[in-house]
Amino acid sequence: KARLAGGTGSTADALAAQAAQAELANRLDQADATIAAARAALARWVGAAAAQATLADPPDFTRLPVTAAHLLQSPDAQAPLLDWESREDRAEAALQSARASKHPGWNVDLSYGRVPGLPALATLMVGVRLPLFPAHRE
Q: Which Gene3D superfamilies match (predicted)?
């Protein structure tokens, strides 16, 4: 409104500012209604006196819980990096599996059988699995 009165703004700017203000007011009212509904549900379960308790102050997210020197001293012990070694191991195993699927697989089977009245039978089988058409395999 001040820019409009000063001659630098347009009526569209003033209306947009009023619409944004109304939207923020609606969001605040919605948050208050959500809190009231949550307190009513809490009162149903734990009693009205416990539901009227005041909320604790929110934590201060502008400060780190530990000093910056501690963070720089042990970056590998930070939570986002703790599972990195297992992720590397899984990736290495997947890489080795992919490499192994490109090479043929050999197998040899030897069997011996004897049936009364017939000569003894020995069988030797050699098999080779060739990685043909790998794009069409499941």
A: Outer membrane efflux proteins (OEP)
Q: Is the pTM of this model over 0.70?
A: no
Q: Give the HSE-up count for residue 54: Cα atoms under 13 Å, Cβ half-sphere.
A: 3
**Burial of residue 14, with CB atoms counted within 10 A of its CB: 0-12 exposed, 13-18 middle, 19 or more buried:** middle
User: What tens digit of pLDDT does each residue of 45-102 get?
Assistant: 887 776 676 778 888 888 888 888 887 887 777 777 778 888 899 999 999 988 887 7
User: CA 129, CA 105: separation in Å to the nearest integer?
Assistant: 5
Structure tokens, 115: 């049936």
Distance, in Å, from the CA atom of 10 to the CA atom of 17, rounded to the nearest integer, reads 11
Q: Which two tokens stand for residue 131?
A: 């990685």
Quick one: pLDDT at residue 110? 94
Cα-based distances in Å from 94 to 65, 80, 81, 111, 135: 38, 22, 20, 35, 17
**Which structure tokens are listed for 86?**
């297992």
